[in-house]
Amino acid sequence: MDISSDEADDWFMESLNTYKDLHVFHLEHPTKVIEWTGDKSICVAGCTSSRSEILELLLPLKLYAGDNQGLCAERDFKVQHGGFSEEPVECLIHIPGTRCVVTSGSSSSTLHIWDIGGDESDVIKRTGVINPKSTSAKCSKIAPGLTEEATVLHGSCINDVQLTQIATGRVLYTVGKESSDSVSGLQFVNACVFLICASNGSLLMGDTRDPLTSHYPLKETLKETSGGLHWCFGMRRDRFQSEPSFCTIARLASSGHMVLSDLRDLQSPFCQTRLNVKHSAPNNDFLNVSWAPVLDSCLSVSGFDGTVQLYNTTNWSTEAQDPQPIFSHQGHEMLYEAKYSSSQPVVTTHAWHQSRPNTLLSAATDGSIHVWDWVDKNTDR
Fold first, then answer.
1. How far apart are alpha carbons 307 and 332 in whole angstroms?
2. How far does CA 42 lie from the centroid of its chain?
3. Are 1 and 305 in contact (CB under 8 A)?
4. Which pairs with CB-CB distance under 8 Å and at least 24 residues apart come from 197-200?
5. Beta-sheet strand order (sheet of 125-130)
6. H or E, element range at 37
7. Are 215 and 200 in contact (CB under 8 A)?
8. Which terminus of the chain has fewer Cβ atoms in its 10 Å neighbourhood, N or C?
9. What is the CA radius of gyration of the chain?
10. How far apart are CA 161 and CA 38, in angstroms?
11. Backbone angles phi, psi at 12, to 5 degrees
């Protein structure tokens, strides 16, 4: 969609009331990954160049200045640490409690371990590798373990998924299911239980203490309406429940179909709907659904175009009809500059801040990164 200058001007004037903050940064190459490394820092990595930058960025300090923003001159992202990967980075995760990130790429099956540096150095250095059991496992998805020892769960196909100890490279667990279905996402529920989302929409639940997994395919009615599409997933833990089984799973298809399930009954989704997207996702790798970690029942969707859409699922019923977003971030479309890209940008990824309720980051195919704090008109928050 081409944006006219009048539309961009109108959006800019409206944004003065719809955003508390909006800051823009441009990378040399676009990124598919935004990973938090601290309350005020993120890690990004290029996804289009054979020699790709890995950067740790400090968010604009003005974002954290509160009522004293006028006294804070720092409006820009700041590069804290940097390094280079010898392949495009498809997936990047931070190991909690460390200065370590793990990446996977599109040209090899090897996972790379990186030290993202500290006060004594501004260089991100590769410190090791993990060689999966399958040498064909390119573009592996990765999830950090939730135990005291640093581990990662990783794999590109279900029968490739394994849990590896970072310090030694020792394989601690492998999935005991023969399936060549590709993996679209991995996430731990607690220290032992994890979920795998296959690109066909099926969910598998596993336990690192047991090689057997439970398989939860899509219902036949959904297969008929959305067969052959790519699916991704996002998981939300209930902040008011200590029991980890109190989780809600959102599955999103490249057609806009959405399925919400309770972890305690994955066979019976409590909501099925279809979002009003203009067209199917142009690139399955960009498809993203994420739950807000602080706001109840709020999730975000991107990958269909140059926007990030936010939805409140509180009143979604079994067959929710044409749900409307409560907010749409159009900044990547409206602030698009031809000098950065020859085509309209598509959002490649987005991420919620872990403690600031209305703050998100998003990146697009033109290399732009935005951090934005949106105003909820229902609460003026």
1. 7
2. 13
3. yes
4. 197/231, 197/232, 197/233, 197/251, 198/158, 198/231, 199/230, 199/231, 199/284, 200/231
5. 89-94, 100-105, 111-115, 125-130
6. strand 35-38
7. no
8. N
9. 20
10. 28
11. -65, -45
The two beta strands, 231-237 and 247-253, are antiparallel
Per 3-state DSSP, what percentage of the chain is helix, strand, and coil (rounded to 5)? Answer: 10, 45, 45
Residue whose entry in the numeric block shows the structure tokens 């599409």: 229
Cβ atoms of 122 and 142 within 8 Å: the answer is: no
How much is the average pLDDT of 275-293?
Answer: 88
**DSSP string for residues in 174-217:** E------PBEEEEEESSSSEEEEEETTS-EEEEETTEEEEEEEP
CA atoms of 330 and 127, how far apart (whole Å):
39
Q: Which tokens sit at 129?
A: 């590798």
Start-to-end Cα distance in the chain: 31
Percent of the chain with pLDDT over 70: 88
Which is nearest to 231 in space by CA: 174, 192, 181, 278? Answer: 181
pTM for this one? 0.91
Q: Is the pLDDT of residue 361 over 90?
A: yes
Nearest alpha carbon to residue 3 among 363, 356, 336: 336
Residue 29 CA to residue 194 CA, distance in Å, equals 33
Angstrom distance (rounded) from CA 156 to CA 107: 13
Q: What would the two tokens of residue 16 be?
A: 């003065």
CA pair distance 245, 235, nearest whole angstrom: 11
- The two beta strands, 89-94 and 78-85, are unpaired
Burial of 29 (0-12, 13-18, 19+ CB in 10 A): middle
Written as one letter, the residue type at 130 is: I
Give the count of alpha carbons within 13 A of 286, CB side only: 22
Helix or strand (DSSP H, E) at 8:
helix 5-18
Long-range CB pairs of 178-182 (<8 Å, 24+ gap) are: 181/157, 182/156, 182/157, 182/158
- Label residues 302-316 b or e (16+ Cβ within 10 Å = b): bbbbbbbbbbbbeeb
Q: Can you give the pLDDT at residue 73?
A: 46
Interatomic CA distance for residues 78 and 139, integer angstroms: 29
Percent of the chain whose predicted confidence (pLDDT) is above 90: 62
